[in-house]
Automatic annotation (TrEMBL):
Gene3D superfamilies: NadA-like (3.40.50.10800). Keywords: 4Fe-4S, Cytoplasm, Iron, Iron-sulfur, Metal-binding, Pyridine nucleotide biosynthesis, Transferase. This is Quinolinate synthase. GO terms for biological process: 'de novo' NAD+ biosynthetic process from L-aspartate. Binds 1 [4Fe-4S] cluster per subunit.
């Protein structure tokens, strides 16, 4: 597990500052929305929506959590005042609180984090602080749920802004997945019956970026969770036990990983929950090896093959590394693809003077550029467009939840019911126990990946 401790260089990489400079004409460049310069509370008070950023065009489910009004003093405080209030509250709380900051979170929040990492790294990091009464998760809703699954019952997991959901996680809701499962039963028959090789018709696999309810669903149906780091191992585990896999919510991670394992694209039909049998025929589903849910991350969908071509023209010798949530043509055109952890390690391992174009959320890219000045590191997408929901966490909300804790009040607590938590933990335990079968050789299809970096199309 790689956890990055907060570094002094972090604020030099501020995406917030870049946005302000661009929008006031003091720096070149463009942003995807003028609203990115506003405080997130301006959107919390309006209609329920993902807000400015990569997901602003996505349809938000009705009934999505909304954040109540943030007290005025947090909205009007200067950056410096919020910084000092957060530090003071943390100092008062001491070991009673642990603050987790996701890689994609803004630097003005990350600088206060005790741990910085991806969602599963952070949930595990919280396990190292069993005496903390509160875990403040500066990330999005499903991440706070995962932390609640893994924390002790006495620990309160807090999401500073309840509007920080995840548009991709929202694309697969429990009701739609249950309906899909019932339709698959019509096609495959008894979903618990095994063939001569001892395999059931279909194993459900959910990406970590999904609700606890879906983690519980796969736990109840013999499936498991995967991360972008272990998706290959998880699919191999599933293929040993099932004739095929139902993979949700991210079609791209599923397709990229299955393709690296040699599954033909013709055997990866897409499941559109708004169409009968997901839009495929029964024969296509019978022939399927991986059924891909119709979900995607709007941050990673912004990256294109044309951007890669342009980066290669503008920066001869550039190494292009993208996240496996990117569309398949982008992953294929890149030099390497892998999780955020993979990207960080590739940069760490590179000789000084390397040039990287990175296809992942811009807060992480700008932070890496500041932390590794011996390299040239830039975001593959020239338009500044952070994750809409990570954006909803602002230092004002962090100051608020911490000062409420100082006053003895827990606000914005995220809890997962025991009914959901039990099978969801089973699905997570299966993931941790999954090992790649000895007979399967690693795939290495990365082109010109950094010499000492892990080399694979999708990190295993
Ligand atoms: S980057 Fe994508 S997957 Fe991650 S929280 Fe944002 S929308 Fe969800």
């Amino acid at each position: 597990m790689t956890l990055v401790q907060p570094a002094d260089t972090r604020l030099a990489a501020s995406v917030d500052r870049s946005i302000q400079l661009i929008q006031t004409g003091k720096a070149a460049g463009s942003t995807c929305s003028p609203d990115l310069a506003k405080g997130p509370w301006e959107f919390d008070a309006g209609p329920v929506a993902y807000g400015p950023g990569s997901s602003m065009g996505d349809v938000i489910p009705t009934g999505s959590p909304r954040q109540g009004a943030l007290p005025e003093s947090y909205k009007t405080a200067s950056d410096a005042e919020l910084h000092d209030r957060i530090r003071a509250a943390k100092a008062t709380l001491g070991e009673r609180v642990v603050v987790l900051g996701h890689f994609y979170q803004r630097d003005e929040v990350v600088e206060h984090a005790d741990f910085v990492g991806d969602s599963f790294q952070l949930a595990n990091a919280a396990l190292t602080r069993p005496d903390a009464e509160a875990i403040v998760f500066c990330g999005v809703h499903f991440m706070a749920e995962t932390a609640d699954l893994l924390s002790t019952p006495d620990q309160a997991v807090i999401l500073p802004n309840l509007a920080a959901g995840c548009s991709m996680a929202d694309m697969a809701d429990e009701e739609s997945v249950e309906a899909c499962w019932a339709e698959l039963e019509d096609v495959y028959g008894d979903l618990t019956a095994t063939d001569a090789a001892g395999r059931v018709p279909v194993i459900p696999v959910t990406y970590m970026n999904s609700s606890a309810a879906l983690k519980g669903f796969v736990g109840r149906h013999g499936g498991l969770v995967c991360t972008s780091s272990n998706a290959r191992t998880v699919l191999e585990w599933a293929f040993e036990r099932g004739q095929r896999v139902l993979f949700f919510p991210d079609q791209h991670l599923g397709r990229n990983t299955a393709k690296a394992l040699g599954v033909p694209l013709e055997q990866m039909p897409m499941w559109n929950p708004r169409r009968a049998l997901g839009g495929s025929s029964a024969d296509e589903l019978l022939d399927a090896r991986v059924i891909l849910w119709h979900g995607f991350c709007s941050v990673h969908r912004r990256f294109t093959v044309d951007q890669i071509a342009q980066a290669r023209i503008d920066h001869p010798g550039v190494q292009v590394i993208v996240h496996p949530e990117c569309p398949m043509p982008v992953v294929d055109a890149a030099d390497a693809a892998g999780s955020t952890d993979f990207i960080v390690k590739a940069i760490q391992a590179a000789p000084a003077g390397s040039t990287f174009a990175i296809g992942t959320e811009i807060n992480l890219v700008q932070r890496l550029a500041a932390e590794y000045p011996q390299h040239e590191i830039f975001c593959l997408d020239p338009v500044v467009c952070p994750c809409s929901t990570m954006y909803r966490i602002h230092p004002g909300y962090l100051a608020w939840v911490l000062e409420e804790l100082v006053a003895g009040r827990v606000v914005n607590r995220i809890t997962v019911s025991d009914e959901v938590a039990e099978p969801a933990r089973v699905a997570l335990e299966r993931m941790l126990a999954a090992k790649p079968p000895a007979s399967v050789a690693p795939v290495d299809s990365g082109r010109d990946a950094p010499a000492d970096a892990p080399r694979s199309t999708v990190e295993a």
